[in-house]
Fold this sequence. Notes:
The chain is of the alpha/beta class. The protein has one domain (about 5-240): Rossmann fold. Helices cover about 40% and strands about 20% of the residues. The two termini are about 25 Å apart.
Amino acid sequence: MTDQLEPMPDDWQRALAIVAHPDDLEYGCAAAIATWTDQGREVAYLIVSRGEAGIDTLAPAEAGAVREREERASAAVVGVTSVEFLDHADGVIEYGTALRKDIAAAIRRHRPELVITLNPDDTWGGTYWNTPDHRAVGRAVLDAAGDAGNRWIFPDTEAEPWNGVRWVAVAGSDSPTHAVDVTDGLERGVRSLVEHRAYIEALTDQDPESYARDLIEGFAHQVAERFGGRPAVTFRLFRR
Ligand SMILES: [Zn+2]
């Protein structure tokens, strides 16, 4: 694992990050987003569900609002103010044309050059089975980046077709190709995960601050050996 990763492209202004759940972006990717918003880039979030099935001790009717609030607070920490929710049902998000259409419509509205999503592969690192929501959403995002530019596909969306997506960057991939130096964004990356306090408190007995710091700093420093010794967040980059 000593092959060096390429730096992420930096000739872009607008990104749209599209994931299944509140917290998906905060498990690493947010440190890169903090670094980008510092540079004056615009990043918006589109969250496909409200994560309402994510807290064992809290019924979905209450959990959805809690998790939406936590996600908006997390986004604010890394300079993101545009956070939209699609309201697909957490845990049972279906891959299909309905999901592709919702995502394509959002891409047409936001007109991003870079689209970001989360690992859609079967596993995390070959050892943990991935969730059906992550598989469905990641694949639909990769597909919808193309759908958005074709005016004959989903012709009745409100916004005009947008064929300007140049890359889709997959966070959390087992086979990353690119990375971003997060020296400046790392601390906010940690704090953005801490904002998911209700979620983390139901998940672990560990204090949320130390839980978030161990994970986020651990990921970033683990990558350093493949990125010139700098703490980094990795992506698998698909060009369009
Ligand atoms: Zn998730």
